[in-house]
Every structure is written in structure tokens, then in C-alpha cells.
Amino acid sequence: MESLINSISKSTSTLGFALLLILLAEIPVSKTTKVSAETSGISKICELQTSRNPSVLETESKCLYETGRYNEAAQKWEQAAKEYEKIGDKINQGLALSNLSLSYQKLGSWEQAKTYIQASLQVLRPKNNQNTSYNRLQAYAQALDIQANLAYAQNQTEEALKIWKQAEQIYIQIEDNSRLMVNQLNQAQALQILGYHVQAEKNLSKWKEILTTGKRQQSSKPGQINQVDSKTQVQGLRILANTYRLLGKLDESEKVLKKAIELNLPKEEKAAMFLSLGNTQRAKAKNLRELREANNYKEYKDCKQYESSDKKQLKQQSVDESQKEFSESDYIRKAKDSYQKAVDILNQAIASSPNNNIKNPSNYLLKNKIQIQLNQISLLSELKENNAQSDAEKIGEILREIKPKLKQLPEGRIKIFAQINLA
Questions:
Q1: Dist CA 216 CA 157 (whole Å)
Q2: Percent helix, strand, coil in the chain (nearest 5)?
Q3: What pLDDT shows up at residue 297?
Q4: pLDDT averaged over consecutive 10-residue blocks of the chain (423 residues)?
Q5: In a 10 Å sphere around its CB, with 0-12 CB exposed, 13-18 middle and 19+ buried, how is residue 205 labelled?
Q6: In sequence order, what are the residues at sequence separation of 6 or more whose Cβ sits closer than 8 angstroms to the Cβ of residue 124?
Q7: Distance from CA of residue 317 to its chain's centroid?
Q8: Which residue in 399, 265, 261, 283 sits closest to 334, CA to CA?
């Protein structure tokens, strides 16, 4: 999955488990590179050549990366970096090295990823005693974004945020508002993890119009973006919805997610949307449960009695319209359905993926599925004592499926949260 870059959000009081989110990241490529891969259904066919032309190598690398062939992409980008170095093209050499780091990040090879991003930054870093070109500043900022992603993937959230802010200042300086938007969306997710939900919303507010409509309705200022590509839009909408949920704006969160699900989405992104929708529906159920408990109603198993006999009392509380329309058990059912839809969609994507073996460390689809299943276990665990054996059996079924896979995951944020939550 091309990164807005890969990440996991923090567990909150609403959720017992960490959940996978996708950060945004463009693959930095030279201005001359064009992807010549053909598309067949959802799979790209990469036309590989025995060429030392760095532009050709870069095109091949990008195609290999986008089809999940990260080892091969890394080899091609390494060749491209060497060829650019031979002809003295520092900017494209640095970009190739940063993409090499991004490929190793996908493979979970953190030391190699660190080595190559440091090499990229060394090549691209502006000199204090010279005027720096727009292209060099832009390439340097993109490399900083990838360095931030590396820190983020290794659970160094504060360090990642600090680096993203460095890149942000460059994008503001050169008026690259398209990459500035992606950068600030990434910052918003880091802010969520650190608990700065209001600041995250502030970051997102300036992009809300273009994310929700795909374009700006009013004439924009010079350098301001008027449209956004569909990939950035849907991932940005999910970040916006998650921020609303963390702030308790559950109706707004649900509204954004339902709008996004209606868009033409890749399977992996649609699964992520259903995961987020399930989390929002679960948060609504939690709010209703807390309202019930605050009014001295009995334990969860008595919820149905509460719902049937005391709706009048419920309507007197200061709750929003959607909470009046649905009961606690309705939202629990909706959350279970949304999680299962997410798993089913990812199963379809995994079945058609060439990398559908958990032993392949680049198989992000399986990693995403594990995250959704952790959320399923968390929800079912809350219900197990009050509901039936079927929930306990479902938990056992999921655990039997994912426990062997967890051992084979590369070290990183996903594995850390999984181990904590299953301890």
C-alpha cells in the first residue's frame, strides 16, 4: 500500500486495541520519470528491461514498489542511485536513495532503511552558504517525510512529528501545497497518537473542504491546490473521521466514513474504512452504555430491557439524533458487521495478491487483516461475559488463526501492539 506512509493509531478509552491506519506518502521520483506499466484488472504488469538508464530503472522501481515487489524495487532503486551518482545528478540520486529506504521500510529491514535515508539526506541537505534550488528543497523535504515515516514505524512518534514539522516548513517556503497537505495529514495521525486531538483537528480543518468534495469551491490563492487525487482524498477522509471519533464527534465521524465508503476504493482502503466505521459505531455503543450505567441500569445483559422499557428516559438525555435512533445493541451489531466486512474484503484482496504468504514480510494485506482481527477480539471480549458461547468460540477461532502469524511479523509498531494486546 503506497504510503499518506504506514502506521498504527494509539489505543484510546474507546478501543481496547491498536488499529492500523494508513499514512500518506508519495514515492518521490524524478521529474522525467513516467510509469509505463500496463494494468490488468488490479494488477500492474511491470515491463522490466536490462538497462542502465537511471530514468528507466526508476520507472521499473516504482512499478515494482506499487505491485508489492519490494525486494526487486530496492535492487532497481539502488542501481538507479548509482547511475545518477555517476552522472552527478545529486537530486535524483538522493530521491532514489530515499525510495530505497522506503522499500526497506516495507520489508521491515529497519537498519537498511535507516542507512539509506541518512545517505539520502546527506546528498540532498542544503548548504548554508549557497542558494538552494526549488527542486533540491522539495527533494530534501520528501526525504525528511520518509525519515519521519521510519521513526513512526518504529514507535518513535515524537521524533517522527519533529521531522515532519521540519519538512512542513520547507513545503511552506516553496509553496508546495499538495505535499504540505499530505505532510499535515501525517502529522495529524501522529498528534492523535500523542493525545493532541484538538491540534490534529486544527491541522485537518484547512483541508476539510477539499477532502470532502475533492476540490475547492472558491477560487484559490496562488500556489493553493484546487483538486486532490482520489487516493489522498480517501485516506485523508479516514484520518479526518478518526480524529472526529477521538474528539467524541461521532456523528461527524460516521458521516465522513459513510461518504468515503461510497467512493470507488481499492479493496485494502475499503477494508480500512470499514474498520474505522466499526470503531466509530463501537464508540457510539460505549456512549450509550455509559449513559445507561450513569442512570443506575443494570449490567450489560440487562441492556435489552433498558432499551425496550426506558426509551422515554433516553430521549430526555442530551444525546445526538443518531443515538436516539439506534440502541446500544444496534451499534454493537453494526460494529461487528463492519469489522467482519473489513476482514472479508481483505480476504478477497489477499487471495488475488502475489504475496499472500505471511512469511513474506512485505505482505501488508495480511498485517492489516491481523489489526482488524485484534479489534474483533477486543469487541468480542467485552461481550463474552454477557453474551453467548458463540462470541467465545469466535475469539478462539481468530486467535488460532493469527497467533502463528504474529511470530513471523517483522519487528515494528504492528508487532508491538499485537503482543501487548494479546499478553
A1: 32
A2: 65, 5, 30
A3: 61
A4: 32 26 45 34 59 86 85 93 95 95 91 97 82 90 96 93 97 92 92 91 87 64 64 86 91 91 85 89 85 64 43 44 62 86 82 58 66 79 60 76 71 65 62
A5: exposed
A6: 90, 91, 94, 95, 98, 136, 139, 140, 143
A7: 36
A8: 283
CA dist 286 and 20 (Å) reads 21
| 66 touches 99 (CB < 8 A) | no
3 state SS of 213: helix
Residue type for 68, please? Answer: G
Q: What cell numbers appear for 114 in the block?
A: 535507516
Residues 6+ positions from 10 with CB-CB distance below 8 Å:
18, 192, 193, 194, 195
- The count of C-alpha atoms lying within 13 angstroms of the C-alpha of 366, restricted to the half-sphere facing its C-beta, is 24
Say if pTM beats, i.e. exceeds, 0.85: no
Q: What is the number of residues in the chain?
A: 423
CB atoms within 10 A of CB 185: 23
- Torsion sign, CA atoms 101, 102, 103, 106: positive
Q: Per the structure block, which three cell numbers stand in for 308? A: 425496550
Which residue from 396, 263, 298, 275 is spatially nearest to 346, judged by alpha carbons? Answer: 275
Distances (CA, A) of 382 to 250, 294, 301: 20, 18, 12
Q: Cα-flanking dihedrals φ and ψ of residue 3, to 5°?
A: -80, 130
